[in-house]
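Bit of a strange request maybe. I'm writing a small parser for structure token strings and I need a real example to test against, not something I typed by hand. Could someone generate the tokens for this chain?
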Amino acid sequence: MNSAAFLLIAVGSLLGLTFPLGKIGAQAGVSPVVWALLMSGGATLSLLAYRVFFKLPLLLKANNVLFYCLAAIVSLVIPNILTFSVIPQLGSGFTSLLLTISPLFTLAFSSIWQVRMPTVLGSVGIAIGFVGAVIFSITRGEIEQPASMAWFLAGLGIPISLAIGNVFRTMAWPSDAEPMELAIGINLAAACMLLVLVLILPNVPLSLAPLSPIPLSQSLFSIMPAVVLTVLVATVMVALHARLQLVGGPTYLSQIGYIAAVVALLVGTVIFNESYALLTWAGALIIVVGAALSVFAQKPLNKRVNR
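Reply from user aminoacidic:
Good idea to test on real output. This should exercise your parser:
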């Protein structure tokens, strides 16, 4: 499964679903730390159970533990806690749009540290996507409840942290590591860190009791509890994410934010009745154009990846 375009669309779409699901958790009163733990812990247990059931090696290596931990901090722990903290303030759709700024930061960090660079066309796609990101950022959330600048600035920590993670994983990728090993190792490390935070932080109960099945009788999602769907989405996303990292490199990987933003914006609007200004939708359209150019520019790379 080395098609960068397929992986980009699949991972981005699954990531986009985590935002409205995170809003359900927030509305139910579940702590952002606990919800982040649900995603990383659920995905880790599911992938480990799969490998045990089919008698596959667990792959985890002691000499890669430091990489797991550092990657987990910048790629999962920080951005997920920030994400599920700002969703109630910015809306799930708008929060997801913050990810569209990640490619710019990733490109900047890749340039500074001389990591794999995008093609000229890929850079144009990123630039166009950033224009869209600037346009939507003007509105700062839903029409009925625009967020304060403080919450917006807090949300900017999400794409910055993700960009650092994108570049770090490429720079420090262990030479003997398979994508699935890193997927499991990073999420296991994140789950352990988040569990420690839950246990030591005051007023953060380790409980999902407030959650009930998604209250949307006309929705496809109504047949499944939010927790089960979240774990399922996280598991598949994690399994594909590391492969995309290897195939596409850090800057291309960051384009998942474009896909995720559009998916989350649509779900938030249709299912949760979130309302956004025309400028927000205009920005989303421009983002799609930028993502399409980036996907097209990546095609030549697919033939060079055989791992």
